[in-house]
Amino acid sequence: MSRPLAPEEFTARLRALSSRYWDDHPFHLRLHAGALGEHELRSWAANRWYYQRRIPQKDAAILANCPLPEVRRRWRERIAWHDGERAGEGGAENWLRMAEAVGLSRQEVLDERHVLPGVRFAVDAYVTFARTKPWVEGVASGLTEMFSRGLMARRLADMRERYPWIAEDGFAYFTSRLAVVADEGKSTLDIVVRHCRTREQQDAAVAALAFKCDVLRAILDAVDYHASGS
């Protein structure tokens, strides 16, 4: 059996997966360049909603599998952030405001009439992964947070500049998320490094993060393919 990687080696392997993140996906490049039409932005917002809606369920599955109170205490904050402490608050609510700001009605987002089969398949696979894999692999899959802050800050700046017709209230998801994502990424990495003690666990954590990167790119592949044919 291979020896466990030292923490710095393990961390480096995880960070090396940044090249598989979805920041350089062709759809995102067009989004940032201001090259998307309104119908493409609406498709993106409606399909990304399905991902946002399912994230708290993914996190709840990790909580259910985790036997450690100290980890559960930290992880449950994610559910509260997405769902809000009360109706009308939280990350999911802010994403609905984004969808409304690009021209969708709340009802057509909530009833998921625009969600593409490929997006539904990829997101549901991610939730199933969290339910069926060891809890630390579910946590490791969330390490895309390490790569997301720079992309989110760039997206906020580019969308404000390139799509000035989007009301500022529509950017609430990004402004609120930027305030927490850096700390979440560090917290998640600390948990994974501390609890992946064997080489097998470390390799599984790397594979989990690679899987999550593939899920994200599959979401955009579906949206991009639909946009090109519309």
- CATH class, anyone? Mainly Alpha
Task: Report the principal-axis shape.
Answer: globular
**pLDDT below 50 for ≥5 consecutive residues: which ranges?**
none
How large is the radius of gyration? 18 Å
Alpha-beta content class: mainly alpha
Q: What is the third-level CATH name, the topology?
A: Heme Oxygenase, Chain A
**CATH superfamily, please?**
Heme oxygenase-like
Give the % helix. Answer: over 70%
**First CA to last CA: what distance?**
52 Å
Order of helix and strand elements from N to C terminus:
HHHHHHHHHHH
Integer count of domains: 1
Strand content: under 5%
The residue-averaged pLDDT reads 94
> Quick one: biggest sheet?
none
Q: Determine the number of helices (DSSP H or I, runs of at least 4 residues).
A: 11
User: Any idea what the CATH architecture is?
Assistant: Up-down Bundle
Number of strands: 0
Domain Thiaminase-2/PQQC: 12-221
Family: Belongs to the PqqC family.
GO molecular function: pyrroloquinoline-quinone synthase activity
Pfam family, one: TENA_THI-4
What does this structure look like?
Residues 12-221 form the Thiaminase-2/PQQC domain. Keywords: Oxidoreductase, PQQ biosynthesis. Pfam families: TENA_THI-4. Pathway: Cofactor biosynthesis; thiamine diphosphate biosynthesis; Cofactor biosynthesis; pyrroloquinoline quinone biosynthesis. By secondary structure, the chain is mostly helical. It has one domain (7-229): Heme oxygenase-like (Heme Oxygenase, Chain A, Up-down Bundle), CATH 1.20.910.10. It has eleven helices and no strands. The protein has helices at residues 7-15, 26-33, 38-65, 69-83, 91-101, 106-110, 117-132, 135-141, 145-162, 172-195, 199-229. Helix 3 runs antiparallel to helix 8 and helix 3 runs antiparallel to helix 11. It is globular. It starts with 6 loop residues before the first helix and ends with a helix.
